Amino acid sequence: MTVLLGYSGGLLVPGHHVLPPLAIALVAGVLLPRALSRSHWAHRTPRLAVTVWILLGLALIASVSLTALQLLLPTAGSHHLSRFTEACVVSGGAQCGSLLPNGLAGVGTRGWAALVAAASVPAAFAVTFVRELLSARRQRVRHADLLRLVGSRRPELGATVLEHDTPAVYCLPGRGPQVVVSSGALEVLTRQQVTAVLEHERAHIAGRHHLLVAAAGAFCAIFRGLPLARLARTEVPLLLEMAADDRALRRCSRDALATALYAVASGQAPDMAFAAGGPSAVLRMRRILTPHAACSPTLRTVFVALTAAAALTPLVLACCSVPGISID
Amino acid sequence: MRRLGDLEAEIMDRLWRWGRPATVREIVDDINHVRPVAYTTVMTVADILHRKGLLRREKAGRAWLYEPERSREEYTAALMQDALGNTEDRKAALQRFVEHMSPEDVSALDAALRAMGRVPGSAEEPGAPS
User: Fold this and answer.
1) pLDDT averaged over chain B?
2) Would you give the DSSP letter of residue A197?
3) A184, A266, A280, B51: which one has the fewest Cβ atoms less than 10 Å from its Cβ?
4) Mind giving me the DSSP string for A102-162?
5) Residues A81-97: what's their mean pLDDT?
6) Residue A168 near residue A277, CB atoms below 8 Å
7) Which residues fall in a coiled-coil region (chain A) (predicted)?
8) Domain boundaries along the sequence of chain B
9) Which pLDDT tens digit goes with each residue over B85-125?
10) Which of residues 70-129 of B touch A (CB under 8 A)?
């Protein structure tokens, strides 16, 4: 099979080197995300699970980028590329020149096209990510401008209070971060519950969770339709809420946090249009009230190792060929 | 810039409390009870607020009479709407303690709380970190 696929006589016949990155893309983009979203350990160790989602995202970007590269490069060129990369890494850049006898001019149009195609995948992600961050910041600045006029700063709470009957608690992360509570929330919550919700929001700010939410959003915008993107879009924010819950629990009791969650949720006028937050709040509630039993570390370790491998292989197998045993 | 922002809040606060149009002179005099502030500074900031659409003004003799465009409650409601609204693209902008929920979901929360034998105000248990 290798020989068949590796046949490079035709211009558009892709080399066999396409297979490894394609396989990694399939594993990181479809199989592992489905398994991860169903796994039990993810919600028990949310921070670890978020790391795994990030690794999966990186693995996918790297493998799609490599697939593009290998599709466009002729087989022989892809072998050269591997030697080139290897020599550069091993020699720390000193021997790069010797592998390109004709210098950069010898790379050829097709080679350049391949490089551009490969670079466009991470570049598209970076651009979308930055755009997402900027648009979020614009919204926050607009919000904060008005908040400064109508809200009252309460140093003893470390929060800004909005005079409104509906209970609401949220934070504006980023530059000049602040936690906002409505007077309605202060009305229905006890002192311990207030501490609990404020700690939860401060955990979002301290953990810079808005960056990860934006990254998941950008990822979803680019790889729309892929299970990894679709699942990460909902799972990552939920895991971050759980991570913030865990952090709040260092300073408050399980009861305080769980009952605060219910008090705030039930105090807001229920609305049929808002189904999105529901199941996730119930998941959080159960999790807060049930102290975690030690979960099977073996399964988790296997999963993390697998993901780390998926994230690293595209780099290691920059071209899946080791000079000397490549089939030419 | 920080000071200008504070002054904006001070001006708006007075106009909302008074509930009537006022001149820059009146605002300056009132702020001067608390701290010294220059007439020209207040005039500049009032003009900024006018250009931002927060204050409307009309000529009364030789001075401008300033008045808030909307009530404090209206702006607060707008902020709450912004914060609690169900817009997907708000996700990265601000983070809510809990999302707005449907009645079914709220009763599911209630059930989850009761299933664990908890009701608001029940005995505390030590909050062991996970």
Assistant:
1) 84
2) H
3) B51
4) TGGGGGHHHHHHHHHHHHHHHHHHHHHHHHHHHHHHHHHHHHHHHHHHH-EEETTTTEEEE
5) 56
6) no
7) none
8) 2-68, 73-115
9) 765 556 678 888 888 787 888 888 888 888 877 765 443 44
10) 72-73, 75-80, 82-84, 86, 89-106, 108-110, 112-113, 116, 118, 120-129
